[in-house]
Amino acid sequence: MERIRTAHINSASMPANLLLLLLFGVRVLAICPPMCTCSRGHRVVDCSARGLGILPDSLQHNIHFLNLSHNRLQDLDGLLNHFDHLRTLDISYNHLHHLPVGLPRALWDIRASGNYIRQLEKNDTAYHWNLQNLDLSHNLLERVVLINNTLSNLQALNLSHNKFWTVPTNMPYNLEIVDLSHNYLLQILPGSLDRLPRLSRFYLHANRFTSLSEGVFNRLDGLQLLTLGDNPWACEDEENINHLLTWMQQTPAKVLGCPCYTRPTCGEVHMATRRTWNSAAFTEPPLGADARHPIHRAPMQAVTSGSLSKSAQLNVAHNPSPVNTSGAGVQVLIMGGGFLTSTPHSLSTQSSTTIRTRSTKKVLPGRARSTSHQVHICSFETTILSLLCTVFIPSAL
Known about the structure:
By secondary structure, the protein is α/β, with parallel strands linked by helices. The protein contains five helices and 17 strands.
């Protein structure tokens, strides 16, 4: 009898316990720190610009996005490693002196710009196989040690506005975008870029380059956009600069801020000679394009920071000849023995202290003569035809 009564009591209390458990569970799932705002089922948490000095309590373990930017955080070591579902972490513009230790390995995107980070050790990014974007711009970095086989999915690396003197070596091989603009770069060590076949956008403007090693860009087979403006190129040192100028005349990539030239854009030689605009990625429609036949393309990605070029000016030397090609009124410029696309760009009006006018190759004479010859032939045939009409039409009447 006592056993039956106990069983009855237990069965009666089960709904109450279950109700308490459900209420507690809902409360846990719905929790959001009072100083933050949460959305998307409390998995997107924004704690930015709250004056925080410590990590907020009661953050859910299953959050996907955490914004801690523009606060006063100084140390986050070991405080974020239990967020196993975290995909994006924004800790930019805080008071951090190093990348936090023990970041979740599930992260896709780490934004740590605007801090006081001086170096990046190999253990700081080790085992981050899922990481795709890493932004360490606007720090005090002088050295980074990257292990390319542990960052196999890294596609974008922003190291602009730091204190690098040399382009980092051993960069992950799947990188597509690297921004090293606004540093103190003087050299690129031979072989540093040899294992970056997918690199498509490379920003090197606003540094201290005077020359570059021969063949330094030769292995960048996927390169589409390179910025070299606002560097003090030693144009008078022809022995060391000529190989770079030759490479620019042959590369299919677009080069913004051409060294020792007075025009803002060079490169894209092979693309323009094939007279196809669809294959020229990151290219704006040319000046004078026919508005009735607009060229639909994705806009060129803006350079991530700052002015592109002081050395690149809009005054084109030797008066290049515009030639209209078929399709949408495309204009190309014949200069240096190749075709260069004529595209508008807004660049700085200041000139480099090392620029001097360099001689360029003459316009291809064969093409110029053949065009003129065809025009004369057409005019001669028109004259003969008009004379024949004058003679034979009255006689027929």
